Amino acid sequence: MSLSLIWGWFTDPANWQGTDGVPNRVLEHLFYTGLTLLIALVIAVPLGAWVGHSGRLRWLVTGANAARAIPTLGLLFAVSMFVGPLIKSDLAFVIPSITVLVLLAIPPLLSGTYAGIDSVEPAARDAARGMGMTGWQVLSKVEAPCALPLFLSSLRSATLQVIATATIAASVSLGGLGRYLIDGLASRDYVEMVCGSILVALLALVADGVLAVIEKRAVSPGISGRATRVARSRARNSDPHSEPDSDGADRTDPDPRQAALVGSRSTGPVEATAATGTPSERDRT
Amino acid sequence: MIRFEGVTKRYVEASGTGGGAESVAVDDLTLEAPTGQITVLVGPSGCGKTTTLRMVNRMITPTSGTISIDGRDTASLDVAELRRGIGYVIQHAGLFPHRTVLDNVTTVPRLLGTDKRTARSRAMELIERVGLDPAMARRYPAQLSGGQQQRVGVARALAADPPVMLMDEPFSAVDPVVREQLQNEFLRLQSELGKTILFVTHDIDEAVKLGDQVAVLRVGGILAQLDSPARLLADPVDDFVAGFVGRDRGYRALSFGAALELSLADEPTVRLGATAAEVRAVGTAWVLCVGDAGEPLGWVRAAAVESEVTTRVLHRGGTVASTTGSLRALLDAALSSPSGRGVVADDDGRLVGTIRAAEVIPAIEARRDGVGATTGSGTHAQTSARPAEEATAR
Ligand SMILES: Nc1ncnc2c1ncn2[C@@H]1O[C@H](COP(=O)(O)OP(=O)(O)O)[C@@H](O)[C@H]1O
Ligand SMILES: [Mg+2]
What we know:
By secondary structure, chain A is mainly alpha-helical. Chain A has helices spanning about 5-10, 20-55, 60-65, 70-85, 90-120, 120-130, 135-165, 180-185, 190-220, 220-225, 225-235, 255-265, 270-275. Magnesium ion binds near residues 49 and 50 of chain B.
């Protein structure tokens, strides 16, 4: 097999048309991914936010993480066998596939949301309540914006996982990019399999890029670390005496938690979940 | 006025065996924080200061007893409304990291429904008022020093102009120099605003400096003594309070009350650049050097001047007392001066004259005889940071 075979596959007009063409398979793949993420978000975000906000039922997050150990493919067949006899239509395949993918996406989203809310500085939370914000206002005006970096990195993590794993839908006779893998395997067309894998990887990269852009725009410069960096370079370039307050000496070091946020942003999404292994105890009086 | 009546807070400590031991954080506290004054709660760590403070805005619910503000029982009010009417400042400022300084300060007015423009223009005023550069308004908290963050915290608490302020160790996380700056500006601000303030600290020096009255708590949340700072230093009720207010309380009590009439000696001076001959012509071993505006720069030892007076040869160890300052500052100026003559300047920093320790002591003794008569009435002499006319205006 050589690069020219792969090139040949991608440039063959037959591969870009009809049900089995790349555009249709990509759309199908995006549909499974989008639907999965939507359902997972609707379940995981309110739950994670509530656990983080109230500090109750933290074991839910740990439990969800443990559920990641269940092998996806086995679960898919188990659910298919259970649902199959009940429904007589394409849904008999869609429901199990989406269910399995949702179960895959929930743990990172749940722990990312929880970790984000949990990482909000206790002093900021305390001040928010003490100033007369209602519980909902504390959550929406303070906790949620501060939780955004960790949440978004967990969303990136979940998206990557779902895009990669959505290929399994093809194994229960649905569409998506997984078709190239399953069909290629069946017909021993390894070029098709390789090209399918390349498409999955490309799709994942593009989706991650889009989310990275969203992250950059949505996260306040005050917590993304951008503001601090700008200020640092400005301070370096300007006359030290222009500092209007003489107490520059006790400038607070960058919050280690913020450093962690920046770190997890740049190294990739998986860390969001690692942060939740030991839910920190916090005074909630 | 904030009034505590028989307020008790018990915590049930969760224990592994199911049953819970009770611990008393605040024990049957009855206390009044008078309108327009600073009441300081002070005591060792864990004595229930924070608990007491947080029961006022119902961040903590008392086990029993009532707390009222201007006669209204706080338990009867809507909790969010109650809190929006009380300024709240905490140790680490608790600024919202995702909001700019300006948007932090507008928080409560916005909660109360003030429109954005009005809230912002008032916030800008406050930002300047707490001593921050207006350009800071666009910054994020992470871009500020600890002292600046505390200023923003104070501005944020003042934004809706609440009559009552609760402050929990607001200055204890900054270094001593900045702390003193913040304390002085806080007193200046309070002299303009006249809020009813409940202020928590574990630092007795801060307590006697800031408080109109000081409540000393002992562990278990028991009120040990409630008095003016001067009375507290002069007459601690028991060994605990005496030990807590510290050993050198006689000396520290000199901080209260401006010095009475004192006659200062004229001090001959030289300028920077004066020749060795000019310096020696003064005739004393140490000669005071002043700047162009007449501000004292430091002492020079006549024998040490080789060709002319430069900043290098200035002795800078001496403190400068103010004519409106306390006896403590005067005594300190005298004791710290290498010539034994304490430098006294006016409020604009210009040299007025010098005074010797031996001349301060009679003034101290004269005042003690006078103070003995006035402290009995329960009022206390004003601290040096607050000239008397401002205090009576409130
Ligand atoms: N949520 C809580 N549960 C149990 N005990 C508490 C709680 N909060 C405070 N305490 C106890 O109450 C006492 C007073 O605490 P606090 O008011 O914070 O003291 P201070 O502010 O004077 O240092 C301490 O002994 C502390 O351990
Ligand atoms: Mg405390």
